[in-house]
């Protein structure tokens, strides 16, 4: 479903989203009818894992302390959240949705996101310029791409994404499918390493063909890729720093290294949904996510996201891995893919990837 949404919605996705929206609106209506409190409720989405944990403990908690409102946090992949909003434009099931760059530009083009007013935000001006979005709210956090590996089975850690092609990793490499944001980010970075760009990916396809002797698995998403690594099905794979740091903190035998080349990244934003019945409150929720307090909290374990606030510190562990001071920014090393160039081509890339990249 994910690659279809970058250009159009499938009938199954629309029907599935419609069924969800119908039931959720009925439930919402019943709650409003039975409520005897003047306290407003925001319904917001986040991703699972560290995102959900952080948004519940740090963001929603901070917001409810300063606003007369309840926050209902729902774990929902960004693509599915957009699908459900598209299926109920006039009565959206959510007030705020968390979405990565690709689906964000799709939703903006579909007209289902509310413009974000900088003059109503206390924190908008403090977000680094590269994380601003024209007319929309800025990005709230970024993830950086590196190399995850099993230290019990790999004694000589890799230093470059191109090390995945080394003969010592025969039948030991896992990569993510292009249907995931992780996979597309890795693919575009590979194109750049081969002299291309978002608009020239032939080098990336050629390089992936050469990976076949080493390729042991293609995983549909970051969670599946991490599971394969933990189960010993693969020993090395491109992966997000925050994700690997999180599972290692829960006991997984896995390490992460920053590649010697640039750090490719993927950012996500919280966006107010058009036709929300609580636009002002929803805007305040997004602004809270942009605050220095919340950004610093989300940069600490167990979350370890790269903050977008200019005064926030980067995750301490990431700073150590990069041999940087945690108070210094690492923006010179960060590469942000151009998703407006990626979106029109992504479906075709995925279809070709599925044909050509075989185990």
Residue ranges: pLDDT <50 for 5 or more in a row? 1-15, 30-37
Number of domain modules: 2
CATH topology of the largest domain: D-Maltodextrin-Binding Protein, domain 2
User: What radius of gyration results from the CA coordinates?
Assistant: 20 Å
How far from one another are the termini?
A: 22 Å
Secondary structure category: alpha/beta
By CATH's scheme, which homologous superfamily of the largest domain applies?
Answer: Periplasmic binding protein-like II
Tally of individual helices: 13
SSE topology string: HHEHEHEHEEHHEHEHEEHHEHEH
C-alpha geometry: globular
Give the DSSP E fraction (strand runs of 2 or more residues). Answer: 15-25%
CATH classification, class level of the largest domain: Alpha Beta
What share of the residues lie within helices?
40-55%
Mean pLDDT: 89
Beta strand count: 11
Architecture of the largest domain, CATH level 2? 3-Layer(aba) Sandwich
How would the blueprint of this fold be written?
Elements: H1 2-5, H2 11-34, E1 40-46, H3 50-66, E2 69-75, H4 78-86, E3 96-100, H5 101-110, E4 139-149, E5 173-176, H6 181-193, H7 202-210, E6 215-219, H8 222-230, E7 236-240, H9 241-249, E8 255-257, E9 263-272, H10 279-289, H11 292-298, E10 306-307, H12 316-321, E11 334-335, H13 339-356
Parallel strand pairs: 1-2, 5-6, 9-11
Antiparallel strand pairs: 3-9, 4-7, 4-8, 4-9, 4-10
Helix pairs in contact: 2-4, 3-10, 4-5, 5-13, 6-7
